[in-house]
Design goal:
Elements: H1 11-43, H2 54-82, H3 88-111, H4 123-150
Helix pairs in contact: 1-2, 1-4, 2-3, 3-4
Pfam family, one: Hemerythrin
Keywords: Cytoplasm, Iron, Metal-binding
GO molecular function: metal ion binding
Length: 158
């Protein structure tokens, strides 16, 4: 799905790929990132570059992403697999959620100096930023796949 395939995959293929590749991965990533960020914030509270508030933001994202992914898994994706018409309103809600996720990524970047480690960062801080880099890339790819390839298949006029 991530390659240069000129043929658009079917909604069934795309939705299954999104669920197994992205939804499952986000569910693995975020709890680990919350725990790491809480540890870094606690241990390095006096360091000027500490990403204060990051663990709270990531914890909030767990809930928001879970609600978003459940709406896709239980409502939107099954309707797409059936080829149901009239999904524009639901898709518009998902696109608005994606805009919110993009704003949250901007907040992560602001809190972490654009994911740039301070000099002398410990192993946990380094692991946190490596994990965040992967999460941000995954979420961006996930959103682009839905916005640019999946959703247009079900939108009549955009």
């Amino acid at each position: 799905m991530d390659g240069d395939n000129t043929q658009t995959p079917s909604a069934i293929e795309l939705t299954r790929h999104i669920e197994t590749r992205y939804h499952a991965r986000h569910r693995e990533q975020l709890p680990e990132l919350v725990a790491l960020s809480a540890k870094v914030e606690q241990v390095h509270a006096s360091v000027p570059d500490v990403p204060a508030g990051l663990s709270a933001l990531l914890h909030e994202m767990i809930g928001e992403l879970e609600v978003h992914m459940k709406k896709e898994e239980l409502i939107l994706f099954p309707a797409m697999r059936r080829g149901s018409p009239g999904l524009e309103t639901t898709i518009a809600v998902m696109r608005a959620d994606h805009d919110d996720h993009t704003a949250e990524i901007s907040r992560i970047r602001a809190l972490t100096n654009d994911l740039k480690l301070p000099d002398g960062a410990c192993r946990k801080w380094t692991a946190l930023y490596q994990g965040l880099t992967e999460f941000v890339a995954d979420l961006d790819a996930h959103v682009r796949l839905e916005n640019d390839i999946l959703f247009p298949q079900f939108e009549t006029a955009r």
